[in-house]
Every structure is written in structure tokens, then in C-alpha cells.
Amino acid sequence: MDYYLKILGGGREVGRSAIEIGNSNGSLVMDYGVNFDANDNPNFPLQELPGKVKGFLVSHGHLDHVGALPIYEISTLKKPIYGTPMTKALAHLILRDFVKLSGPKIPFEWVEIDKAIKNFNTIEFGKEEEIEGFKVRMTNAGHIPGSAQIHIMTEKMKVTYTGDINTADTKLMDPANPDDLRDTDVLIMEATYGRFNHPGRKSVEKEFLDKVKEVIEGGGTVLVPAFSLNRSQELLSLFASVDFPYPVYYDGMSREITEVMLQHKDYLHKPELLKKAYDSFHYVNGFNERKKVWKDKGVIVASAGMLKGGPAVYYYKKLAEDSKNAVFLVSYQAPSTPGRKLLEIGKFDEFSPMLKARFELFDFSSHSGKADLMKLVRSAKNLQKLIIVHSAADSAEHFAAVVKEEIGVDVIAPENGQEIKL
Ligand SMILES: [Zn+2]
Ligand SMILES: [Zn+2]
């Protein structure tokens, strides 16, 4: 039977991942996410004819991979969805939060989200399953808890989609195993960081802990704006791993997400660290506590990670004016977010005063950088074709050129809407 791939989203862009794999009998769509334009309007992937799509395979619970799933749950359409139990639980929280924040701009409501979760079937790592006529297996992708690489075995070849992938050993996640790609013939790979390498995790962790301590010992408070899914739990686990001697506070949706993670411990590298953090660190419960904790000499991990709303903005306003305090960013800062403005002009926005607190960016990436992506490509001994997705056009082209030169396989950085025969 002849198979094809069709890029419905995530072609030459980061986010709104959606990749269809099919044959004359029908298709499965891997991920169905959203991303946002400069005015914060959600962009959805292209739509395939509902009659053709038999179901969805989900790599992980980030909004840019699950945010559009409920579209196929509207009215009489009821498409089954498949992913790990952790991804199912996280997707539920993330979709509800999406409706809360962007409600009027999206074409579905709570009822469709509930349907999507009702139609969400769980599959465990390592087991081969027969799904709508396709042989499917998922293995750890190391990116966030529950994140999977998706392997599809056809009569002629093995197709692997990495989802978002990380081979770094972090306090929260076991790294992805390159051996999972050994017999892959066609690799669909993310290349968010196709142009850059990250520093080693251990050295970033040490530098971060040393500097947080330094600020507190100098009489200051440290604000760490962090995403409530994954980065917050990684940092809390890091503080727990060294029995951090000063007060650690956390604020935002991270509490609820931590509880979900602790219910699916198998997907965590060191669940005992996250449990210890959950039991011993102080969750900021509501505004009355928020008003007090920033005066304490300690560290506050709060969403949002790019200072775009959330409790982090409140703390920023309280702490930014005093040079004893610090604001430590721990993730990529998207264009036109306050975090990016701080990096570019040293201010929250054009109208606010210059930041006086100490300010640094630490690279705790949950995506593999260029050299590690290359290692993953090389570990696929049978590789016939590499398809680069989830990567800005310049980064995708750069990485494609490097792979072509060094390995010599067929490489494509497809546009949305492009169909690829296998
Ligand atoms: Zn992503
Ligand atoms: Zn992701």
C-alpha cells in the first residue's frame, strides 16, 4: 500500500504541529495544536476532510500540540485520540486554561473539550498497538512528562515523529533514547533549535543555584518567571535536590499540574524530588499571601514564563525597583513579550522604568540543540528521508543544509499544505 504524509501545521514554523499520515483507507493525524500571531490570535492548522481522518495521535500536552484537537469533536464528529495517560491529564488542564484565556477567539467550548477527553484513549510506552489499521508504538521523548516519540510501522517502513524532543538529563525528565530511532526509515523531526547548541544542563543548574543563593544572601528576593507546565516542576525539583536552605515559594497553575504529575509518577525521572518539593515548598495561596511573600528573602517561581500575565507580573512590579533583588529568566522569550523587551531594552515595556534588579537568562531548554539533534539523526541507521518540522524557516533550512552535507540523506523542510509520498 502507498503511504503519504501531509503537513497540516508546524511547517517552517514553531508550534501548531499537525502531521497527517495516511493511505487509501484513511489517515491518522499526529498532534493538532495552535500557535499565536503578534496580536495573540490563535492560528489553527489546516483541516483535512473529516471523512478521511480516522483519529489523532498526540505526542505531548503542550498547547501547540493539543490546542486544536476539540475542533474534530464538534457536532457529530467523534474522532478517537491516543496518547499517554500523563498527556491525557495534562491536555485536559491545558485545554481548559486555553478556553479561559482565549475563549471568544476559539471555535469550541468546554463541551467539546470534555468530548475530546472522553474520546482520549491511553497507550503506554513501548507497547505496539493496532490503531485504526496502523501499527503504532510510543517511546519517551524526554521533553516534558508523558511526551512521546511516535513510531508507525507500515508494511515497508518505519516512520518516526519525534514530537518535541530532548536528550538532556534533567531533574524532571529521563532523556530520550537515540536507540529508539535505530531502525527508522523516515524521520519527522522537530528542529526548534536547529541553529544553536545549549550549554550542559549540569553547569546551568549549578550556576543558577549559586546565583539565586548569592542574591538571597545579599538581602534580596529572586523572581523566577517560569511556565507552569514542566519548567516550574523542574526548578522545584532542582531546589529540592540540594535541600535549598532558603524559602522557596511557587505561584500559579503549577500546583495543579504538579498534582497531576505526581499521579503519574512513572513518567518522571526522579518522582521523589518532585514529591519532596510539593511537600516542603510553599504554594502561594491567593492574593493575601502574595502580598506578603515577596517581602521575604527567598525565591519565587511564578508563571508566566515570559512575564506575559500571571502572578509573575505582580511580583515583577514589587521587586524590579530594588537592585538587591533579581529577576532570573529560565526559558526562551518570544518576540514582543515583556521578557523579550527586558532582554532588548531593559524595560518591561516602552513606558515603564528601567529594571534595577539584577537580571539574567539561564538556558534550561526542554528541546535538544543542534548537535544533539544531529546525534539523533545519525542514530537512525536506515534513514532514507528526514522531514524537518516545528522550526522557523531559517533554522529549518540551516539544519537541513548541515544534515545534507554531513549525512547525505534526502532532507525536506516542508511548507504547510505540502504532501510527501513515502
Ligand atoms: Zn512544541
Ligand atoms: Zn512541547
How does this structure look, described?
- The protein has 422 residues and is of the alpha/beta class.
- The protein folds into 2 domains: 4-196 and 366-421, Ribonuclease Z/Hydroxyacylglutathione hydrolase-like (Metallo-beta-lactamase, Chain A, 4-Layer Sandwich); 201-361, 3-Layer(aba) Sandwich (Rossmann fold).
- The chain has helices at residues 63-66, 85-102, 110-118, 201-217, 231-241, 254-263, 271-280, 287-293, 311-319, 338-345, 370-379, 393-406; strands at residues 4-9, 18-23, 26-30, 35-36, 42-43, 53-57, 81-83, 120-122, 129-131, 134-140, 148-153, 158-161, 186-190, 222-225, 248-251, 282-283, 299-302, 326-329, 358-361, 385-389, 410-412, 419-421.
- The strands form 4 sheets. It has a 7-stranded mixed beta sheet with strand order 8-7-6-3-2-1-22. It has a 7-stranded mixed beta sheet with strand order 9-10-11-12-13-20-21, with helices on one face. The chain has a 6-stranded parallel beta sheet with strand order 16-15-17-14-18-19, with helices on both faces.
- Helix 10 (338-345) links the parallel strand 18 and strand 19 (358-361).
- The protein is globular and about 70 Å long.
- The chain binds zinc ion (ZN) (2 copies).
- One zinc ion binds at residues 60, 62, 143, 164.
What does the overall shape look like? globular
Helix content: 25-40%
- In the sheet with the most strands, the strands line up as 8-7-6-3-2-1-22
Q: How far do the termini sit from each other?
A: 10 Å
CATH level 4 superfamily of the largest domain:
Ribonuclease Z/Hydroxyacylglutathione hydrolase-like
